[in-house]
Amino acid sequence: MPAECPDLWSGSFTFKEVRVEMIWDEEFETLPREALEALQLKRLKSLVERVYTDVPFYRKQMDGAGIKPGDIKGLDGLGNLPFTTKDDLRDNYPFGLFAVPLERVLRIHASSGTTGKPTVVGYTRRDIDTWAELMARTLACGGTTQGDIVHNSYGYGLFTGGLGAHYGAEKLGTTIIPISGGNTKRQIMIMQDFGSTVLLCTPSYALNLAEVMSEMGMDPSSLKLRVGLFGAEPWSERMRDEIEKKLRIKAVDIYGLSEIIGPGVASECLEAKRGLHIFEDHFIVEVINPETGEVLPPGERGELVFTTITKEAFPVIRYRTKDISRLIKEPCVCGRTFLRMERVTGRSDDMLIIRGVNVFPSQIEHVLMSVEGVEPHYRIIVDREGALDTMEVQVEVSEEIFSDEVKELERLGKRIQGEIKDMLGVSCKVKLVEPRTIQRSEGKA
Ligand SMILES: [Zn+2]
Predict the structure, then answer these.
(1) CA separation (Å) from 188 to 80, 195, 253?
(2) Residue 369 CA, ligand 1 centroid: distance in Å
(3) In angstroms, what is the span from residue 336 Cα to ligand 1's centroid?
């Protein structure tokens, strides 16, 4: 952990050397598996007792499944408990799933409901502390240390991104710039004038920043930025390469969702940049088959399910995230012992069924990644002509390619079409469009 400032009243004026420590909470982040599982079980048992007593929804769920809190004898007992879904959260809007009286809730956040009511989550004082610790871990995992100037472009407000990262950065002892989202040119000016070294935002907003810099005729290497922690939306290795190349920084993937705690659920380490360490002393992870609910063995791809074992105000049992990933069991070079999850490659409800075939947008992205001259911006349009589903993929191509002959464009379109057909087994239309014609996000707010 970073050294404290010297205490000027103690008579000692020697400045301590500030140590650079990549692992924020070494004791917990490097726990041997056996000790970790013992801790998880102890915490799980206490959680199940607590929600059975304090949350009518969970008592009803468990009674319905014929399970009493005392039935949980081992970690494998978790699999007998019913899932919790986003619909359950909506049905108990706004505070029905809180496990403490509202007087003990210090803060409320909510996720932007695309349809109807948002989902509401709450935090006690201890929850806020836990969250700050987890975000300090996340930032350290991505290579942030005391002395860094953290440019936080995640939205501040009901969305968990801004404030979640903010408290973690303060806990870690960095200098934080709470700039929030939007007004890209001003962001760039502040980044330059204040000497920001760490960027926090969505990956698509990072690309947007790079594009605006290039429009302004600005060289990103004139900035002090060296690393970016990107999350709140799925992205690909191809996008990582783009961001690293265009902004001249190292880019790491972070993961979280408000229903679990916000950002601070899992993070890639800068050493490996391969898979995100899940903070398993606070969250138990399972991967399930989204169709059947069956728990899959490690290594298989499916839907992530989390149980929060330390949260007080808003604990969840077996929450179905709808995010598609897979677990990596192999030990990591950084020394952390937590399991890693592969970057999220899609959403189980984004899964498109085209003429009976399951299609994840991430598979299409994977195809596009392999084609030279194609920009990492695309849009999938699914329609129905008569009884037949149709799919059109609109892809941005580079300036050079777009100004090529029509024949060349046609050839490229045909090639992408062929590769998508090979990969998915369904045919689609491919439309190549000019650079910067597909709408960019202004950061998630
Ligand atoms: Zn690692």
Answers:
(1) 51, 10, 22
(2) 25
(3) 6
Token pair 């710039």 is found at 177
Q: How far is the CA of 180 from the centre of ligand 1 (A)?
A: 28
Q: The tokens of 224 are what? A: 């002090």
Q: CA-CA distances (angstroms) from residue 245 to 47, 152, 227, 228, 241?
A: 45, 21, 12, 12, 6
Q: In angstroms, what is the span from residue 339 Cα to ligand 1's centroid?
A: 9
What is the pLDDT tens value at each position of the chain, 445 positions in all?
Answer: 444 444 444 444 444 344 345 899 999 999 999 999 999 999 999 999 999 999 999 999 999 999 999 999 999 999 999 999 999 999 999 999 999 999 999 999 998 765 678 899 999 999 999 999 999 999 999 999 999 999 999 999 999 999 999 999 999 999 999 999 989 999 999 999 999 999 999 998 999 999 999 999 999 999 999 999 999 888 888 889 999 999 999 999 999 999 999 999 999 999 999 999 999 999 999 999 998 999 999 888 899 999 999 999 999 999 999 999 999 999 999 999 999 999 987 778 777 777 777 677 777 877 887 787 787 788 888 888 877 788 899 988 888 888 778 888 888 899 899 888 887 778 889 999 888 888 775 443 2
**Placement of tokens 């709808």 in the chain:** 322
Ligand 1 midpoint to CA 267 (Å): 9
